[in-house]
Design brief:
The chain is an alpha/beta fold. The protein has two domains: about 190 residues, 3-Layer(aba) Sandwich (Isopropylmalate Dehydrogenase), CATH 3.40.718; about 140 residues, 3-Layer(aba) Sandwich (Isopropylmalate Dehydrogenase), CATH 3.40.718. Helix content is about 35%, strand content about 15%. The protein has eleven helices and twelve strands. A twelve-stranded mixed β-sheet has the order 3-4-2-1-5-12-11-6-7-10-8-9. A hairpin with a 4-residue loop joins strand 11 and strand 12.
Length: about 325
């Protein structure tokens, strides 16, 4: 049987992405790894760490096995050679070209999933290109409605809002918006994770979930009406729950995933207990996309100290989800 083909992007050339990708290639992961980046970039990273790396041009042919230390490559040239720790806006178009190749390849069936290393959004914007992140890029290219989820083996947390300043969060939470997000999360928990009837815990926005309106009315005016509407459609939704107790073990056994109202409401809990095993997952795309749960770590780039655990976890989750898609579609 052919190995699943994972398109792996290196992200910011001056960050830890190339380092992590080389370390991923050295692992025994049972996948046809196709690196989408500059060939010489990976060769330089491998030399820095003394990691034997054998690169082969990707011809699209199926592989039945992969030896550790081997990697297929789809060469996308850098504009300028990387300097670890010092992003160069001149390489912004290179980064975007790698994402486009990965996305289009998945849409065309050439890859089974995408795994992304971290990129530097500021460097792309400094090049005069409007860019808000991986998730938004893939959503726009696929014309899909998406939701960000971070998942560890023990916990899954989706976000109602993502990268917003805290003062902008309340106005961004609407009944229609919550319904949209929860429908996507519910559908993807069924199709990607195999839950026949997903149980989703929904957090309140305010302390103590508003304390009956004494600490804010968003729960009463917005969140509860949205949940009641979706419960009438057959969804199993808990909440709105106070965020300070929703993650205790006695609560966790009652749900399969959590919807947090904003970024720092749910993700610190997840990352504090499983940082090296947490994966960023984009729900709603017509293909599987996973990523690391950390940034470019410019201070570690080129030092050999970057831990590949999150990238390896992302690749393993991509394999699991891609295999489930294959089974459901009847592919061999």
């Amino acid at each position: 049987m052919a190995l699943p083909r994972l398109a792996v992007t290196a992200g910011e050339p001056a960050g830890v992405g190339p380092d992590l990708l080389v370390k991923l290639a050295a692992s025994p992961l049972a996948a046809d790894l196709v690196a989408i980046t500059d060939r010489a970039l990976l060769e330089r990273a491998a030399v820095r760490y003394g990691i034997p790396l054998r690169l082969a041009e990707d011809d699209g042919a199926a592989l039945a096995a992969r030896e550790p230390g081997t990697l297929r490559i789809r060469h996308v040239p850098l504009a300028e050679a990387e300097r670890p720790g010092q992003p160069d806006p001149r390489n912004a178009r290179h980064v975007l070209a790698t994402l486009a190749e990965a996305a289009d390849g998945c849409m065309e069936g050439r890859y089974d999933a995408i795994v992304t290393a971290p990129l530097q959004k500021a460097s792309i914007n400094e090049a005069g290109i409007r860019f808000s992140g991986h998730t938004e890029f893939f959503a726009e290219r696929a014309r899909a409605d998406v939701v960000m989820m971070l998942a560890s083996p023990e916990l899954r947390v989706a976000l109602a809002t993502t990268h917003l300043p805290l003062h902008a969060v309340p106005a961004a939470i609407t009944a229609d918006g919550l319904a949209r997000v929860l429908r996507i999360v519910h559908a993807e928990l069924r199709s990607k994770f195999g839950f026949a009837q997903p149980r989703i815990a929904v957090l309140g926005l305010n302390p103590h979930a508003g304390e009956g309106g004494h600490l804010g009315r968003e729960e009463i005016d917005t969140i509860v009406p949205a949940l009641e509407r979706l419960r009438a459609e057959g969804m199993h939704l808990l909440g709105p729950l106070p965020a300070d107790t929703a993650f205790v073990p006695a609560q966790r056994r009652h749900y399969d995933a959590v919807l947090a109202m904003y970024h720092d409401q749910g993700l610190p809990v997840l990352k504090s207990e499983a940082f090296d095993r947490t994966v960023n997952l984009t729900l709603g795309l017509p293909y599987v996309r996973t990523s690391v749960d950390h940034g470019t770590a410019l201070d570690l780039a080129g030092t050999g100290k970057a831990d590949p655990a999150s990238l390896i976890a992302a690749a393993n989750l991509a394999l699991t989800l891609a295999a489930r898609r294959r089974e459901e579609s009847g592919e061999e």
